[in-house]
Amino acid sequence: MIVEIKVPSPGESISEVQLASWLVSDGAFVDKDAEIAEIDSDKATLTINAPESGVISLVVQAGESVEVGAVIAKIDTSAAAVKGSEPAKKAAPAQSEDKEKPTEARAVEKTKTAVDKPVEKKPEKTTLPDNIQLSISPLARKLMHESKLSTDEVANHFLNLRISKADVEDYLDSRKAAPATTGFSTAGSGTREAERKKMSTLRLKLAKRLVAVKQETAMLTTFNEVNMSKVIALRNNYADALKKKYGFNIGFVSFFVKAVAEAMKHFPQVNSMIDSDEMIFHKYVDVGIAVSAPKGLVVPVIRNAESLSLDQIEARIKELAAKARDNKITLEEMTGGTFTVTNGGVFGSMLSTPIINPPQSAILGMHNIVERPIAVNGKVEIHPIMYVALSYDHRVIDGRESVGFLVKVKEMIEDPVKMLFEGNDPEKRLFNL
Question: Scanning 80, 164, 273, 382, which has its CA 20 to 30 A from the CA of 128?
């Protein structure tokens, strides 16, 4: 029986996908539920599994765009008995290189080979010095053979020729045209090759969204610096206890997600968005974490971050990041965010202006931590400092809210104990003041 494999729907409003790659070869035996292909939609990379066991026949080439519901392969289930045999492979044509050449050229090459072969089998001996290397073309060697000329005769003739000015000029011109082997060259000595590769559906969609954000929003960025001394000390002091209890330490991103969730309570405008001529104020905080995946940038979402503890946030980040890097992330896990945090510091970024993730109204950019001199109580001290950036839609968020929100995040990070008490003074919280 022949079973058709069709492109599943990756989500609403998606009618076309790109067949990113085949995970099996044409004619190979596949087991039921085995992963056979990857498809790229405008939101994520998904895998297709074999519905039955059998020998697969590929209908669509990798890299092609296909409609949802289209047949991309067929499985012959009656061939299940040959499971132990080698996967079928297409036989490569014996004369694949010749087929790419014109017919006349192949005919000439065959003629030349037939004529030159006897001459190449019996190379003539030469008495020329070892430092002189001769390169004789097949046609020249054939003519020498027909004319009964030895290699020494021809070589000595050219060696005894008088070198003229024109010969030297030709040699100099050839040296200028050839790439320099010593010294410096403005042209460089590297390769000049280029590769053209079709953009994935995910990359195309990402490009369109980023351009749309710049064109359709009044995006502005405000900056601040955060002293990371207390957060680093807190992590170091409790590293062993956290490792023993949870199996991992708390990353810096988790502290910022917690700080963002607490700061939203003071500046709810940052957690809002525009819908037509209305503004939506969310009563929850769903924070997206930008992750660099093999297929491009994806933003999995941590739901209800305002109700999670630091260890719960860290566990969720690790889970979502692993899924993203393995292309196992689902559409549900990447939709519905109200705010985004991106960490360019892992790549060494000192400062940047992150682009808003629509339809959200703001995004927080983290950067690398560098020891810098700062003034503390009238004295210059060296502390680990991180620059942070908040890009926001000025149509929704005013300068007061944006600056105040970023300052509140700064305060939370610089006093992490206070942050763990929901932004309140620990002593007041302890005594219900």
Answer: 164
